[in-house]
UniProtKB/TrEMBL annotation:
It comes from the Bacteria. This is Cell wall hydrolase SleB domain-containing protein. It comes from Rhizomicrobium electricum. Pfam families: Hydrolase_2. Residues 21-131 form the Cell wall hydrolase SleB domain. Gene3D superfamilies: Cell wall hydrolase SleB, domain 1.
């Protein structure tokens, strides 16, 4: 039970900090990236390992784990919604349907990271652009 609660917290953190303004569709897209990475096995073997890979380092995988956002006070309403969605995803009540096309990376549409040219763009959902490795078929 303790591990499940920790995994729920890590998924909730990612949904909140990466997409709280994107609604459920945008938050589910972030969850899809996390689960695709988890499925690949080379980004970590738990939700927490995937989300916090590189935390505190310049090359962290999720910006909130290295830019100080994690230590800021959360807004109650959006935090509760992120936790509820994370619980529904973890229990299978809210299935992830492959909206990102098997993406393993994403970034805000307002930035143009140097790594984006090395990957194949799959879609844009709200303010996030999603990518996968070139030549990989659609997953999930």
């Amino acid at each position: 039970m303790k591990k499940l609660l920790k995994e729920h917290r890590c998924l909730s953190d990612a949904l909140y900090f990466e997409a709280r303004g994107e609604g459920e569709r945008g938050q589910k897209a972030i969850a899809e990236v996390i689960f695709t990475r988890l499925q690949k096995g080379k980004y970590g073997h738990s939700i927490c390992a995937v989300v916090y890979e590189g935390a505190g380092q310049p090359n962290c995988q999720f910006s909130f784990t290295c830019n100080g956002a994690l230590h800021k006070t959360k807004q109650y309403g959006p935090w509760m919604k992120a936790q509820q969605l994370a619980a529904r995803i973890l229990t299978g009540e809210e299935p992830l349907k492959g909206a990102t096309g098997g993406a393993i990376n994403f970034h805000a549409a307002s930035v143009d990271p140097d790594w984006a040219g090395e990957l194949a763009r799959t879609t844009q959902i709200g303010n996030h652009v999603f990518y996968k490795k070139p030549g990989i078929k659609r997953e999930m």
